[in-house]
Design brief:
Chain lengths: ~500, ~325, ~200, ~675
């Protein structure tokens, strides 16, 4: 319980502080960072308590309304990590910034609120309240997008808000449907909206109804997770948001939505078996990978490029969730890797944008010379995103393909691999153009803000560690996740 | 030991005979064309005279230019020591086989072409370019002829081939053998710069190949190159003669056999040389870009040779 | 309630939409209260009260305020004309009935006949959002979508627990407020609330 | 820890340490030295490990199960086959690293040398580990480390567009290989958690025929694209010229060989060989690659591009050997098949030596003249005698001239092709003589090409100021070249000894040897199993040497007078480089002869004086040879992908209604499929 307080309270405190202190002071920024740190430690501690695990599902931290199992812990760690990065590298800590005090204040309010809602969403066992929390993430993040109000950013946040709200409303319809089935079968029961209760009751529920409910839920949360063709808000929002917010959205928000889908899948599988949900997930996943990949080919903006790559990766996660135990393992590992890699690249993209003053790929060149460290890290992030070793995404993609082939879905593996190759070539082509060549005129050469560069080394190191070591606590944790999601 | 001495002796004999072979062809050609012509031993005089002169070397040329004549002569002599001439070499002690022969000759040509380029003269470059083109295009024919021979003998070992053909004379008259012989004969003409591929007796800029390469050579160097070239021709003719019609070749070291071998060798060479001379008086030189047609014809012959040998098995 | 949604399709002026929404919300509250009465669930009364307060009074009030602000702006045509809209809406209702038929079988509650109605309301609201051009209209469509789900919850399950319901309300309110803020943003930055203007982000 | 695994640890530590310590080096010069030092230690470790394994035959096995345990962990298993390739990596790596110290001196202060250090040593590490890997994950990890680091090495001189293009082509093709490798390995895996090579060996045994064929085809394409078979070789002529020369030497000399390694490992070790058509396909692919490689090399006038095309050619030759061996094995002619495999492996070793030598030589030239364009070189033999001599040896070796090593291995491959006549099925056997013809044509053209390469670049007069001012490169670079040249000679004359140890490697792979041990061959001769054909490179060398020395002595004893004079220029006084034959002119006859293949685009424009068209003011003639398969394969592919991408772009139209419509449509589809599923 104490861990949970330490996990959830700090972002809340930081939000309140940022709201109350006006005008913005540097202290608020440092408080955000500290709170992020405390949160991360709490999440880590939580993960460690869950890991050693006695019996399937591991040791649960069930206290009152809250229920922590390995999957929650995994996502909490990711969220806290990315939030800490965003706080530490966002505006408000160094004297010269792109944003003024008002904007910085707003950033800190919404950033922390955003983190808070996401952490709540993954730790709360009540499906309806989880829905509430996820809807709240939409609101908080939408508010954070137009920090400096341009036509593009307002447009992006409107689209985001509208598409996601509609989507998430559909998810709620699905939730209500499933609950309706539950009530129809079992009558009013205490805590009927909790995962465990639903899962236990699932076998007695009506399959045809649950299928419809899952269709609603998949489309609904899928909108939020950026699955194609509901992904349309994603490139707009991610490219227009301030980079730390893009990092959080792309890195973990999408994963939170996938979390919701995975939870529901576990419930519905208990009733009707996994075939239906698997096929649906693979279908939407494949569609996302295809659309994400092909959108990368002639992309002209690097932040949009990263956003489409998120679509592609969420597609992979979705496919993984539809491929049985090994696939689910790969999917969560992929979520983790993607969170680290994508947040790192988005933060770096922010630095590039700051220096080059453009989001167009064609107008960025000689990055490795202009900002050697940023450039090298961006290259590392890009290579990680296309699934090259020694970075973690290589392992998860390898396992994904392995799962497909082991599951007698060689065609799927072939299709995914062809698409991955296309994504690889197009992303590398863009990266190639940005990293090398002569810097454009009028761009200052030389790295600045050394400490934040060093801070960005951290995710790179984490990625390498996940790629060549994959520490056993991590793999055990993910393993526990898989077990907790499998039919009992 | 005596076998090695015998091989040494026959190699030396071949080296000694080579200029005469060239002289003989020239003489016969002259006769066929109604000229008196120089005596067949005229090349010996030329070589002797060249050895006596000083060598003129271009300022542009490097050490490679000076090393090449030795390389050319050396490879020719080495090849002569590998092939059966008067007597078939022992089958227990063989340094190299047919492939070694072909590639040793290629080594000589390689250096000669480089020397052609070394002086910076446009003629040298032209000759080198053309020579390498022709050589490259003859390689497959040579190789396929080897296959045709090896198919019968089951080996690319020269003495094995000779031994097999002697043992089974009917084979020598088989279509495969004859076709391979024809192919190899065309290759002989091409590799040695004879008509219709190259005219050894003119120095016309636009047509010459071998002569253009060696244009800058003089004195002893030229002597070595010419002698090496003559020896190469002899080796080719000897191969054509002994691999396809080995009769008369000495298989033991008995004096009578050796004598018989020598006589038959000279006769066979003379016949082939006469054939070349007749041919050279009858045909005109081909345009350079018609040469590949001739060479591809020879390739087809060699391929047919292999096919028919296959079918005949 | 379905009728109110169809009214939106039929009418063209924003004030009419707002009125339709207000009626719809009152109706929803009434339905909830009725179910509470028959089901004997006290909680649902509270829910009904909150519904009336929030959706029946507060939100229409805010909408009207917004509408007054933008009333000077020219009216724009929807993507689909009225006749076709109604036709499509009837098709959607049909689809909803087909889809919801098995659910009716499942349920043992007396309110089960309301299920297809709720579903068709859901689809029609979706259609409203898709086919209208103004940001305000889209907001109203979204609010109707929420009403539809609320109805679904009420008739299907006798309402979800109060805590959850409150959370949902809060969220809806927040969502609405944020959307309203953005409508103002859009108005400021684009001098229009026609969402057709919002097409600079593509590809 | 045994001594063997100790050497492997030393290897890894050397490479990693060199890269890491480069960051601590106070100056760029120091960084270069530290890098090389680490690489040297690593390579020596690798050589020691490889030598131990080859001599004792005991594989070195090391398992680190805790690293990425879910993907099977890191499993190292160095057997004889791997050791051969590890030895190649380490040997060429050693020389290239030392060479690199001086070669990269010009990067001081201009390029991030420490980054380069990490990539260079990482490249060596990746290549070494490919040869040591013994499970899927380790192999792919090492494989990709090798690919990524080499991509960055290729991009070192990134200012030119060509280099960036090259880098992209390279990394795209290399990823293409990875994409095929994944399913290839996974198809063989008996279960998801059994991924060591030993498991795969078992898994491949029970695989259905179609799957085995699939695995083979995937292996051929994947490893072939790394090795550079036609038409997957497109990256080679781009990437090799772009990379710094010692890196090109490593890439061309060693890295592409790891493609061969992978092919042998998978096809003959893990799957234990296959039906006749596998060998037939290898033979065909090899023949085509060899011939097209050399033909396109002839048309290249950039030294390094020319060498790159020759890599394609030599990979083809190696595949011819493997294919012949495979077919012969399939007909039970194991003793003859072994000749093919031995020839292929030997040619692999040889190509590593002479191609590394040639690239290092080209590097010396480029460092001095700042151009690889042969039309601007010339006369270097006088300015850079050692480089020229080494390059000459390399040229002769790659042209398969006796007594150098290229000849020895090609001799074996020729013999294995001739052995095809023993095959009872004529329709199979007939392929062998055709391959003989192609191989012979290839080596003839290779000789022509290297006459051009050496003759135009090093002989005659300099064609540019750069070439005229060239100096001999630093002694460390020269020494490396001379060592490699010596290596070419030694490998040539000691061929029989090399074959003996290669035979032990073949024996260790049942798919190659078919379990039949071979009778020890004589020390001086390369022989065929029937003992009827034999060839001794050493004796040929001795014979040739003796004759040349004798003649030279005789001539000098008689007294050889040499006078220097100008080259004869048809009476024109004063020779200029413009009179020299050019590389294009040299290759012109062959370009005409093979014009059907090259399909050159020609452009002739003549401007004449106004008075009469017979008075020509200037003539401009340009001609380009663009490989046709680039047009035939790659252009339609990229165009297709672009067309798809353009369609997909339309999805993101910008209208929020449309987006909402997508959501609605997705919902309808999902509901419909839920319904359908019932």
């Amino acid at each position: 319980m104490l861990t949970l307080i330490f996990l959830l309270v700090p972002p809340g405190v930081a939000t309140c502080l940022a709201t109350l202190v006006r005008p913005y002071r540097r202290l608020v920024g440092w408080t955000s960072v500290t709170c992020g740190g405390v949160s991360l430690v709490a999440a880590g501690w939580m993960a460690l308590t869950v890991v050693p695990g006695r019996g399937p599902g591991g040791q649960s931290l069930a206290t009152g309304a809250w229920h922590i199992d390995p999957l929650s812990a995994l996502l909490a760690v990711c969220i806290a990590f990315v939030a800490l990065l965003a706080a530490a590298l966002g505006p408000g800590l160094s004297p010269h910034d792109a944003h003024d005090a008002t904007e910085t204040r707003r950033f800190h309010i919404y950033m922390n609120a955003f983190a808070f809602t996401m952490l709540t969403a993954v730790t709360i066992p009540n499906i309806a309240l989880m829905w509430v929390a996820i809807e709240a993430t939409t609101i908080t993040s939408a508010m954070a997008i137009p920090l400096n109000r341009t036509k593009a950013s307002v447009e992006a946040s409107w689209k985001y808000l509208l598409v996601c709200s509609v989507g998430i409303a559909l998810a709620f319809a699905g939730t209500v449907l499933a609950y309706f089935d539950f009530v129809a079968t079992a009558g009013q029961v205490h805590a009927a909206l909790n995962w465990d209760v639903l899962r236990t009751a699932a076998p007695s529920l009506h399959p045809e109804l649950l299928q419809i409910a899952f269709a609603f839920i998949l489309v609904g949360y899928g909108t939020k997770a950026g699955l194609a063709p509901m992904h349309t808000w994603l490139p707009d929002a991610h490219s227009e948001a301030p980079s730390p917010i893009s990092a959080m959205m792309s890195g973990v928000l999408l994963a939170v939505a996938m979390y919701a889908i995975a939870r529901w899948k576990a419930v519905i599988d208990a009733s009707i078996g996994p075939t239906f949900t698997n096929n649906m997930l693979i279908g939407f996943g494949l569609c996302s990978v295809a659309i994400g990949t092909l959108s990368l080919v002639i992309q002209q903006h690097y932040k949009r490029m990263l956003a489409y790559s998120s679509v592609e990766h969420m597609g992979l996660v979705s496919i993984g969730l539809g491929l049985g135990p090994l696939g689910v393992f790969a999917a969560w590992l992929h979520v983790m890797n993607h969170a680290v890699a994508k947040s790192m690249t988005f933060l770096l993209a922010g630095r590039i944008l700051h220096r080059f003053n453009t989001t167009e790929i064609a107008r960025v060149s000689g990055l490795l010379r202009v900002m050697p460290w940023t450039g090298a890290l961006f290259a590392a992030g890009g290579l990680a995103l296309v699934g090259l070793p020694p970075f973690g995404l290589f392992v998860s993609e390898l396992l994904l393909v392995q799962a497909a082939i082991a599951g007698q879905k060689t065609w799927l593996a072939a299709l995914v691999l062809v698409l991955l190759l296309t994504a690889f070539v197009s992303l590398l082509a863009h990266l190639n153009r940005m990293l090398y060549g002569q810097p454009p005129d009028g761009v200052r050469v030389g790295e600045d803000r050394q400490w934040s560069t060093m801070a960005l080394m951290l995710p790179a190191c984490v990625l390498v560690a996940l790629g060549v070591v994959l520490p056993s606590p991590v793999s055990t944790l993910i393993h526990q996740c898989v077990i907790s999601l499998l039919p009992r | 030991m005596i076998r090695y001495l015998a091989i040494l002796a026959q190699t030396l004999a071949a080296v000694a005979l080579a200029p005469a072979l060239v002289g003989f062809i020239r003489w016969l050609k002259a006769r066929l064309q109604g000229r008196t012509g120089a005596a067949p031993w005229q090349p010996y005089y030329e070589i002797r005279k060249l050895f006596g002169k000083e060598a003129v070397v271009s300022h542009t040329a490097s050490w490679l230019f000076k090393a090449t004549p030795f390389m050319v002569f050396g490879t020719s002599v080495a090849v002569a020591s590998l092939v059966p001439l008067i007597l078939a070499p022992s089958d227990s002690f063989v340094i190299g086989d047919l492939f070694a022969v072909v590639y040793l000759l290629l080594l000589g040509t390689f250096f000669l072409a480089l020397a052609g380029l070394d002086t910076g003269s446009p003629f040298g470059g032209m000759g080198a370019s053309r020579e390498m083109t022709v050589v490259a295009l003859t390689e497959p024919t040579v190789a396929l002829s080897i296959v045709a021979l090896a198919l019968n003998a089951g080996s690319t070992n020269l003495s094995q081939i000779v031994a097999r053909t002697i043992a089974e004379p009917s084979m020598a008259l088989g279509p495969g053998h004859l076709l391979a012989f024809a192919a190899l004969f065309i290759v002989t003409l091409a590799e040695n710069g004879r008509l219709p591929v190259d005219n050894p007796s003119t120095h016309l800029e636009l047509t010459m190949i071998h002569e253009a390469m060696v244009l800058e050579y003089s004195g002893p160097y030229l002597a070595l190159v010419e002698w090496g070239a003559a020896l190469k021709l002899l080796v080719f003719l000897a191969l054509a003669a002994n691999l396809f019609m080995p009769w008369g070749i000495a298989v033991s070291l008995a004096p009578a056999a050796v004598l018989m071998g020598l006589v038959s060798f000279i006769v066979k060479l003379a016949v082939l040389a006469a054939a070349i001379a007749v041919l050279e008086t009858r045909v005109a030189k081909l345009r350079l870009f018609r040469v590949p047609e001739l060479l591809s014809a020879s390739f087809v012959l060699a391929l047919l040779a292999v096919m028919s040998t296959f079918l005949a098995r | 309630m379905l009728l109110t949604a169809l009214i939106v399709l039929w009418r063209k002026s924003v004030p009419a939409y707002i009125t339709a929404y207000k009626w719809q919300s009152w109706l929803l509250a009434a339905v909830t209260a009725t179910i509470g009465y028959f089901g004997g669930d006290r909680q649902l009364y509270w829910v009904a009260v909150v519904l009336v307060a929030l959706k029946g009074v507060a939100i229409p009030f805010l909408l009207r305020a917004m509408q007054r602000r933008f009333s000077a702006l020219p009216e724009t045509k929807p993507y689909v004309n009225t006749e076709t809209s109604l036709l499509i809406a009837s098709l959607l209702v049909l689809f909803a009935y087909v889809l919801a038929r098995p659910w009716v079988m499942v349920s043992r509650l007396p309110t089960r006949e309301g299920l297809p109605l709720a579903t068709s309301l859901l689809f029609v609201s979706l259609f409203i959002i898709v086919s209208r051009k103004k940001a305000t209209t889209q907001v109203i469509g979204f609010l109707m979508l929420e009403n539809a789900i609320g109805l679904l919850a009420a008739v299907g399950t006798y309402g979800v627990p109060l805590l959850v319901e409150l959370g949902v309300f809060l969220d809806a309110l927040m969502g609405f407020l944020v959307m309203q803020i953005f409508v103002y943003h859009i108005h400021e930055t684009f001098d229009s609330i026609d969402v057709e203007q919002l097409t600079r982000l593509r590809h | 820890m045994s001594a063997e695994s100790g050497t492997l640890v030393l290897m890894v530590a050397g490479f990693a340490g060199g890269a890491g310590l480069a960051f601590l080096a106070p100056s760029d010069r120091g960084a270069r030295l530290v890098t090389a030092l680490g690489a040297i230690v690593g390579c020596l470790g690798g050589l020691a490990a490889a030598a131990t394994v080859i001599v004792t035959g005991r594989p070195v096995i090391a398992v680190l199960p805790n690293l990425v345990s879910s993907a099977g962990g890191i499993v190292i298993g160095l057997d004889r086959l791997g050791a051969l390739f590890l030895a190649l990596v380490a040997a060429v790596g050693l020389l290239a690293a030392i060479y690199g110290v001086s070669y990269t001196a010009e990067y001081d202060g201009r390029r991030p040398l420490r980054f380069f250090a990490v990539m260079f040593n990482g490249f060596l590490l990746g290549m070494s580990l490919v040869a040591c890997a013994a499970n899927i994950f380790t192999f792919l990890l090492a494989w990709e480390v090798m690919a990524v680091t080499s991509y960055f090495l290729v991009m070192t001189e990134h200012e030119s567009d060509d280099t960036r293009q090259a880098g992209l082509w390279y990394i795209a093709m290399t990823h293409f290989a990875l994409v095929l490798l994944l399913p290839m390995f996974l198809l063989m895996a008996p279960s998801a958690d059994a991924t060591t090579f030993a498991d795969l060996r078992l898994g491949a045994r029970v695989l259905p025929t179609a799957a085995r064929d699939g695995v083979f085809l995937l292996a051929l394409l994947a490893f072939g694209s790394k090795a550079g078979i036609v038409p997957l070789h497109v990256w080679l002529p781009r990437a090799h010229p772009a990379a710094p020369s010692h890196v090109s030497a490593l890439m061309s000399g060693v890295m592409i060989k790891l493609g061969i390694y992978g092919l042998i490992r998978v096809t003959f070790d893990l799957m234990g060989g296959g039906p006749t058509w596998w060998g037939g396909l290898l033979l065909t692919v090899g023949s085509v690659s060899a011939l097209l490689g050399v033909l396109y090399a002839l048309m290249e006038h950039d030294l390094k591009r020319l060498l790159a095309y020759h890599s394609v050619e030599n990979i083809g030759i190696i595949l011819i050997g493997i294919g012949a061996g495979s077919i012969l094995n399939g007909f039970g002619l194991h003793a003859l098949g072994r000749i093919g495999f031995a020839g292929a492996l030997f040619h692999t070793v040889n190509h590593a030596s002479f191609k590394a030598l040639l690239f290092l030589g080209a590097g010396g030239v480029i460092q001095q003249t700042h151009t690889g364009n042969m039309e601007e070189l010339g006369g270097l033999i006088k300015r850079m005698p050692y480089t020229a001599a080494s390059f000459l040896v390399g040229s002769a070796a790659i042209a398969a001239l006796p007594p150098l090593n290229g000849f020895a291995s090609e001799w074996l491959i020729f013999q294995s092709l001739l052995a095809g006549t023993h095959i009872p099925r004529p329709e199979v056997a007939i392929g062998f003589p055709i391959a003989v013809g192609i191989l012979a044509l290839t080596s003839g053209l290779a000789a022509a090409c290297f006459v051009k390469a050496f003759g135009i670049s090093f002989l005659a007069m300099p064609r540019s100021d750069h070439a005229a001012r060239a100096q001999e490169p630093h002694w460390s670079m020269r020494t490396m070249m001379l060592l490699l040249a010596g290596g070419c000679g030694v490998l040539g004359v000691a061929a029989p000894a090399v074959i003996r140890s290669l035979n032990s490697i073949i024996d260790s792979v049942p798919g190659l040897s078919a379990g039949e041990p071979v009778a020890p061959s004589p020390r001086l001769w390369l022989t065929m199993p029937d003992g009827m054909t034999q060839m001794s490179p050493l004796l040929i060398a001795v014979l040739l040497g003796a004759i040349i020395v004798a003649v030279a002595l005789a001539l000098h004893v008689r007294g050889l007078r040499v006078r220097r004079a100008d080259t004869w220029g048809c009476g024109r006084i004063g020779q200029t480089p413009r009179m020299e034959y050019t590389a294009s002119a040299f290759a012109e006859p062959l370009r005409r002869i093979f014009s059907e293949l090259y399909r050159p685009t020609e452009d002739l424009s003549i401007s004449v004086h106004g008075e009469s068209r017979y008075f020509v003011r200037s003539i401009t003639y340009t001609s380009h040879v663009v490989p046709w398969f680039e047009k035939a394969f790659y252009e339609p592919l990229t165009r297709g992908v672009h067309a798809c991408a353009t369609q997909v772009r339309r999805l993101q139209a910008g209208y929020v209604h449309v987006y909402l419509l997508y959501v609605a449509a997705a919902l309808v589809v999902a509901l419909a499929s839920a319904w359908w599923f019932q």
